Each structure stands twice: as C-alpha cells, then as structure tokens.
Amino acid sequence: MAQRGRPRTFDRDLALTSAMHLFWEHGFDATSLSQLKAAMGKGISAPSFYAAFESKEALYKEAVELYLKSYGGVTQSLHDGSLPPREGVYLALHRSVEMQYGAGHPKGCMVALGVMGANSPGSETITALLQGVRQRTRAGFRSCVERGIKSGELRKTTNAVAMAAAFDGFFLGISVLARDRVRHSDVQKAVSELMGIWDAAAARPAEAA
Questions:
Q1: 185 — phi, psi (to 5°)?
Q2: Residues 117, 26: Cα–Cα separation, whole Å
Q3: Among candidate residues 167, 150, 152, 143, the one with its CA nearest the CA of residue 202
Q4: For 49-91, what is each residue's pLDDT tens digit?
Q5: Where's DNA bound on this chain (predicted)?
Q6: Is the separation of the CB atoms in 113 and 126 below 8 Å?
Q7: CA–CA dist 112, 172 (Å, integer)
Q8: Can you give the residue range of the structural domain that contains 119?
Q9: Which of 27, 64, 105, 150 is found 20 to 30 A from 126 (Cα to Cα)?
C-alpha cells in the first residue's frame, strides 16, 4: 500500500498578506475562495484553508486588521494630541496620498474601497466593520478641528462637523483618484489647496484672545 505523503504546509503570514492584497484589489464579494487559495499557493487545500482561517469572512476581518496595523497607520496623526491640530490633518492626508499611490500593493485605500465591494446579502458584518473604521477616521478629523477651535487657532464660529466632512470626503476620494490614475503630484497639490479651508477659518489675533 502506497504511503501518503506529508500534507503540504504554507506560510500563514504570507497567505494573509496575499489575501489582504486580493481583498484590497477586488473587494469582499468579488474575491472568490478559488482566487484566495491560488494566491496562497498550491500548498493549501480547502480543509487547510478553513482550519487556518475558519471562513472567508473571518479571513477578511483578519486582513483588515493587518491593513490597519500597516498601511492604515497613515492616519494616526489624527489621533495624536501632541501634534498641532492642523499638522495632524495635513499629515494624515499627505501620507494617505503617498500610501495609496505607492508601489507593491493595490492603489487606493482598502477600507474606503471596501464599502463598494461588500453589498451582497450576508455581508452586513463586513459593512459594519468598515463603517466603524471610517467613522473613527472621520472622528479624528473632527477632533483636530475641535482642538483648533479650543486652542484659538480657528474661529469659535467654525463648524467642526462640516469642516471634518470636507477633509474626510477628500480622504475617501483619494482612492478613486488613484484608481483613475490622476497624477500623484496633482493630488498632493490638492492636499495643499484643501488645507486652505483651515487657513480661511483661522482666528484673527483679536478673536483668539
């Protein structure tokens, strides 16, 4: 009787990174189990896949966590109270453009693009996960604006919600610009133009006193 060979093994971390790139490029709904297995290499069978990741949904959630710990860290300046609030906003936008246009991974933001790729029945938990991440980023923009108002850098009449929405709307739109191959230099210039919203709301010396 022929002896069975040892089961093929695979690098789980590498497999997770491959899955993250696939989900990032195509979205949750459009990424099939066959694509995931192919990207992970020939060494993984369906039983091995489910033993390692439990389900496609669980794998996606883990891929999002990996994204947030790595590429998604570009927005951390929004939550850094040691930075001047204007700088926190500028760095988040500037670094996001650099990351989303970078090489070695899909263009755009996995979280921003994910909302368009998780619309099928049963993907509600995925949608909720992505909404939670986007809400945290939006809250970060608002926090920076509110700190600017409190410190006297911005006029007291500044609408923090509206200004945060303007920054967040541009942030989410970077993904489309990157996918449409709008020139990187033009989008970085757009960040500088957008910061004019902040500068236009700057408090005058008498107002800041």
A1: -65, -35
A2: 7
A3: 152
A4: 778 888 889 999 999 999 999 999 999 999 999 999 999 999 9
A5: 34-53
A6: no
A7: 6
A8: 73-201
A9: 105
